[in-house]
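Exercise 7b. Backbone tokens:
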């Protein structure tokens, strides 16, 4: 059986620069060289800048060329080949820098994400589908389908095309999203994509967007924590305003239908399943019932009718008291 041919660029030529210049995937190597992971790994914490060697730089022969060609059928074959041999191929996700200074103390090797890791994780090459149509996507954008997931949700997600050799190991290594166990970041990304879709194509896909957004918010409610939204990360939430579907980062929350109907023309009201308590708490959403004051307002009073009702109550009050005492 054909197996992926694994190479170590650090050992293919006398210097890494020569290997980078001659290898057909030089563009991807250049991208890897500029990455933060490569830059940080190339620095010795003990201050030996002239003694750093790229000790291992694994990749797979011609993989960048195959990905760059963008042929869906070839890339599906590549995915299946990698999946069958992932136990041996996954070691290539790690490269190593080594300090050769004689004065260096302690561990000399520094492991970091290899060029193969950068290629497989950053490029749109995974064979997938959206609504039955083939597409190629980055691993982190691809979802693993489940028969328990609503069809309307699956049709809106970018899902992996089922392959006989696919193992969970390759999916976990490359960061594909399990639809039954998604991460908070994946769900927030999905909500952001739905917001962009609604903004770019208003009036299209409305019901489907609502179904998927409610599903994503319900899933997010079960796993979200304060750490997930630390910093500048925002979470667009499905809401209604003036009768229209919108996404808002800070909608009001209420389960009082009268309040929602009264204020919807002026402010966004969260439009999700009931009981999203963790989501509301973590995102510190505002409770509409605590923000407004409700006062009864009597209008259209009829003095004649009031007097008639008052006399009637006085007439029957003894009977009401008698009944109350029984």
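Sequence design result:
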């Amino acid at each position: 059986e054909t197996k992926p041919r694994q190479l170590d660029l650090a050992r293919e030529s006398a210097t890494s620069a020569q290997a980078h210049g001659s290898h057909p995937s030089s563009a991807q190597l250049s991208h890897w060289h500029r990455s933060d992971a490569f830059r940080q790994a190339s620095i010795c914490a003990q201050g030996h800048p002239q003694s750093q060697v790229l000790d291992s730089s694994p990749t797979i022969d011609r993989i960048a060329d195959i990905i760059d060609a963008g042929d869906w059928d070839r890339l599906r074959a590549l995915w299946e080949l990698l999946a069958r041999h992932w136990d041996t191929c996954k070691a290539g996700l790690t490269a190593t820098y080594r300090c050769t200074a004689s004065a260096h103390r302690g561990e000399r090797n520094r492991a970091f994400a290899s060029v193969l890791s950068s290629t497989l994780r950053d490029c749109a090459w995974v064979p997938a589908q959206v609504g039955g149509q083939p597409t190629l996507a980055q691993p982190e954008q691809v979802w693993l389908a489940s028969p328990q997931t609503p069809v309307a949700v699956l049709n809106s997600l970018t899902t992996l095309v089922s392959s006989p050799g696919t193992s969970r190991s390759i999916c976990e290594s490359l960061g594909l999203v399990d639809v039954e166990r998604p991460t908070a970041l994946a769900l927030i990304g999905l909500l952001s994509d739905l917001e962009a879709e609604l903004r770019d194509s208003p009036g299209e896909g409305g019901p489907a967007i609502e179904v998927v957004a409610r599903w994503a918010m319900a899933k997010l409610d079960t796993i979200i924590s304060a750490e997930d939204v630390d910093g500048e990360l925002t979470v667009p939430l499905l809401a209604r305003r003036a009768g229209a579907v919108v996404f808002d980062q800070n909608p009001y929350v209420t389960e009082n239908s009268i309040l929602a109907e009264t204020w919807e023309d002026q402010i966004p009201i969260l439009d999700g399943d009931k009981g999203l308590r963790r989501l509301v708490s973590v995102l510190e959403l505002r409770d509409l019932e605590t923000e407004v004051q409700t006062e009864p307002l009597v209008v259209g009073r009829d003095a004649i009718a009031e007097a008639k009702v008052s006399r009637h109550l006085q007439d029957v009050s003894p009977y009401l008291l008698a009944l109350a005492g029984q």
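Instructor comment: The longest strand covers residues 94-99. Residues 303-325 form the longest helix (23 residues).
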